[in-house]
Amino acid sequence: MRRTFMRIAVAGAAALVAGSAVAADAAANYPNRPVRWVVPFTPGASNDILARLIGQKLTEAWGQQFVIDNRAGAGGAIGADTVAKSVADGYTLLLANPGPSVNTPLMLTRTSYKVEDFTNIVFIGYAPLLILANPKFPPNNPKELLAYVRANPGKVSWGSSGNGSSLHIGLALFQAATGTDIVHVPYKGSGPGIVDTMSGQIQAMHTTTLSAEAQIKSGRVKVVGVAAAKRSPLLPDVPTLAESGIKDAEAIVWFGMSGPPKLPRAITDKLNAQVNRTLLMADVRQRLDQLGLEVAGGSPEAFQAFVKQEAAKVTRLVKAGLLKVE
What we know:
By secondary structure, the protein is an alpha/beta fold. Helices cover 46% and strands 18% of the residues.
């Protein structure tokens, strides 16, 4: 009996060593074919812009194409679900975002994945949300906006990139802070919402400078306020909600790279290191500064801790009745 147990133990140890060797070899040769980076929103939005910028640098560094795959719908859940169910080999990744990565699985009961169903690789950065409006919309600053929505309960239509998206959370925080009645209009990504804001189909929406840079510069939309603790260096004349007397309505959208569950640590570390190197490149930093993105970087553990904090915040909002679980 003892010899049998010994043989089993030796065989198990040999299998473990062999498995570790295979994993190490896979990481050493990674990537040796194109990598699909799923962006769970429409082309042209902040997630898409960021993924294409960094994906091009990863393509140049490794000589393998990082293919951007836009899979919009259900607040980003369609794209996120694709990654959560993919093979854990590093060839299918997710442009992580608070909507599909945290908010949607906590707010939509039909979502087939959980917050924990991802390997969080690296925290890329974050941007404060702006309040964008059609140029003909009467309010021009946060105080005028608050007065207008209070005088017109249920008449102001406010877009987002989908139920459970970071833009939806921004609206919920604004409503919670002001007690206002605003009509939420979810889209499949911020791009279509910005188009409808320009045309006047909706009056306003939260978004970022990453998503609406061209429209802001051209004057096709106007920025009414900044949902951050301090003014944006890109928009120094636009007041924040806080300085206008609207407290606790600060909101950000963040970005990262994640993979499916049980992604090998060696591949996780290789991706983490290369993205961190990319974020230090002068031309990348310059472009991200132009887009108003605060660069983060750091270890997988740091990103994991951040995601856990974000999930706890959304859970508190749900329990307080400020966000609905559907």
